[in-house]
Specification:
Layout: E1 2-5, E2 8-11, H1 15-26, E3 31-35, E4 51-52, H2 65-75, H3 82-102, E5 127-128, H4 134-146, E6 151-155, E7 157-165, E8 168-176, E9 181-186, E10 189-192, H5 213-221, E11 225-226, E12 231-238, H6 248-251, E13 255-257, H7 278-290, E14 300-303, H8 309-315, H9 317-327, E15 336-345, E16 348-350, E17 363-365, E18 370-371, H10 383-405, H11 415-427, E19 435-436, H12 437-451, H13 458-474, E20 478-479, H14 489-513, H15 531-534, E21 536-543, E22 546-553
Parallel strand pairs: 1-9, 2-3, 2-10, 3-6, 10-17, 16-18, 19-20
Antiparallel strand pairs: 4-5, 7-8, 8-9, 11-16, 11-21, 12-15, 13-14, 14-15, 21-22
Domain FAD-dependent oxidoreductase 2 FAD-binding: 7-385
Family: Belongs to the FAD-dependent oxidoreductase 2 family. FRD/SDH subfamily.
Subcellular location: Membrane
């Protein structure tokens, strides 16, 4: 097997990965980015509504970083590590100014300052935007910036597993998707920036590439996930395709209505109404549908008509086009049909505020792949783009510091370990008959949606756990139809399923264990938040078929838990 050596490997070419790679490269280190898609196709491009930022002189005069920090902590139902939230707020204006100076063309106010809109859970409006295509604009800006640096890109390569020497990572085995050629990439530091896991759920706003690869790779290497039970569901996915209709629509004044024409959010969040945090709005929509106030098929309406045709087409062009092309709805004339769908993952690889994992020396993570934890039990809209850039930069700088302090150490030959990674990948799809991987995948996505979704209870999650264990066993007789070695997407889809199953068992097990409701984790059998017993982070390890769970305290600096009322 070919071996290539770098100082650092970044797995993932979205905003977090590119920002980390930028910081490592400008520090003078040799870095490679491994991405299973071309970087500008990363899921960061699908973040629509904006990036939160307090900018002095360009914000509400009553706003300040403390309000922003408090909103993040309250939005996360007080499971947020408050030092991380403070850092996010304090660096927000700086990071937006940097992206603007690098070429991002933010919308403007009439006086020329960067425009701002409300997003859910914000005391004051602080979301900066490029229409409703903000993520795409930021990603193209950053990719252009790093393209001028000494960074090697391995696009359309699939990361299989990490290679470790005792307690330190020493590289990763990845496979070129075009030819299925494996390569052992050696490095002193690895950054996991692999994004989310939406394909675990039957309904998701995520791209097909979001299969939880980084989480599973870290788990198999012996690293823990933090707070894996916390999965966010976005209230407004287009019916029936589940394409995201950005929170920007409600930020610009759109309202949710039921089949009676009622603005029903007044019942669930009388002060914030349609701009309540996502977990509250998603549960409200499902409740309306279950109680017979939804439309046939199971959705509610998102009404933009009062905003006017010109305003809709200027500020919400993507939402307008998506509704027209995929649901046949003219948003200037009728409400857009929407329902909740999986959207984001608050859980992730356990890291500290610098992006460093405590289990494995040299392992870092950033963006949605990581759990800092800056989002706690529920992420506020427009904090995700901010997190990718702020903590992508912090992680990249931490990697550069790590590399300066950790010279390359001698280690015994790891060729056998690298070969075993490749053998295990082929073994996973070795059967000639039995059950097709697609059948297992569909069953997994349905059980996660039905049993480990927006509303949860003990019986449902126990059933989900037993089904997931059975699905994992079924993979021993799993096959793929395509046996070619050129762009065999079915082979890689099956390996993605392996990652999804490893993550699913951890999510279901930890969700069953957390006997309270907090943020996006809502249990009908334990409907109240329980700070006495559960104001703590879940730390989960995967050991074969067993999930080992421990806990660590939430870092509270200044804001004590209080009732979460909107």
């Amino acid at each position: 097997m070919e071996k290539l050596s770098y100082d650092a490997i970044v797995i993932g070419g979205g905003l977090a990965g590119l920002m980390a790679a930028h910081e490592i490269a400008v520090s003078g280190y040799k870095v490679a980015v491994i991405s299973k898609v071309f970087p500008t196709r990363s899921h960061s491009s699908s973040a629509e509504g904006g990036i939160a930022a307090y900018i002095e002189g360009n914000s509400d005069p009553n706003d300040n970083p403390d309000y922003m920090t408090y909103d993040t902590i309250k939005g996360g139902d007080f499971l947020v590590d408050q030092d991380a939230a403070e850092l996010l707020s304090q660096k927000s204006g700086e990071i937006v100014r940097i992206m603007e100076s690098w070429g991002t063309l933010f919308n403007r106010q009439p006086d020329g300052r960067v425009a701002v809109r409300y997003f859910g859970g914000q005391t004051y409006p602080r979301t900066r935007f490029v229409g409703d295509k903000t993520g795409m604009a930021l990603l193209h800006t950053l990719f252009q910036r790093v393209s001028g640096l000494d960074i090697d890109f391995y696009n359309e390569w699939f990361a299989l597993d990490l290679i470790r020497d005792d307690k330190r990572v020493v590289g990763v085995v990845a496979m070129e998707m075009k030819s299925m050629t494996p390569v052992f990439f050696k490095a002193r530091a690895i950054v996991m920036a692999t994004g989310g896991m939406g394909m675990l759920y039957a309904h998701s706003t995520n791209a097909y590439i979001n299969t939880g690869d980084g989480y599973a790779i870290a788990l198999r290497a012996g690293a823990a996930l933090k707070d894996p039970e916390f999965v966010q569901f976005h209230p407004t996915a287009l019916y029936p395709s589940d394409i995201l209709i950005s929170e920007a629509a409600r930020g610009e004044g759109a309202i949710l209505i039921n089949n009676k024409g009622e603005r029903f959010m007044a019942r669930y969040a009388p002060r914030k109404l349609d701009l309540a945090p996502r977990d509250i709005a998603s549960r409200a929509i499902i409740t309306e549908i279950r109680e017979g106030r939804g439309f046939p098929g199971g959705y509610v309406g998102l009404d933009l008509r009062h905003l006017g045709e010109d305003y809709i087409k200027e500020r919400l062009a993507l939402a307008y086009e998506a509704a027209k092309n995929f649901s046949g709805v003219d948003a200037t004339q009728e409400p857009i049909p929407v329902r909740p769908a999986q959207h984001y993952y608050m859980g992730g690889i356990d890291v500290d505020i610098t992006g460093q994992n405590p289990d494995l020396i040299g392992l870092f993570a950033a963006g949605e792949a990581a759990c800092v934890s800056v989002h706690g039990a529920n992420r506020l809209g427009s904090n995700s783009l901010l997190e990718t850039l702020v903590f992508g930069r912090e992680t990249g700088r931490a990697v550069a510091k790590f590399l300066s302090e950790h010279k390359e150490e001698d280690s015994y030959s790891l060729d056998k370990e690298a070969e075993k990674v490749v053998d295990d990948a082929y073994k996973f799809v070795k059967s000639e008959s039995g059950v097709h991987f697609g059948e297992i995948l569909n069953k997994l996505r349905n059980v996660m949606w039905e049993k480990v979704g927006i509303f949860r209870d003990e019986d449902g999650m126990k059933d989900a756990l037993s089904q997931i264990i059975e699905l994992r066993k079924m993979t021993s007789s799993m096959y793929v139809l395509d046996k070619s070695t050129t762009y065999n997407t079915e082979f890689f889809n099956a390996l993605e399923l392996r990652n999804m199953l490893d993550l699913a068992i951890v999510i279901a097990r930890t969700a069953l264990e957390r006997k309270e409701s907090r943020g996006a984790h809502y249990r009908t059998d334990y409907p109240e938040r329980d700070d006495k017993n559960w104001l703590k982070h879940t730390i989960a390890y995967l050991k074969g078929e067993t999930v080992e769970i421990t806990y660590k305290p939430v870092r509270v600096t200044r804001w004590k838990p209080e009732p979460r009322v909107y």
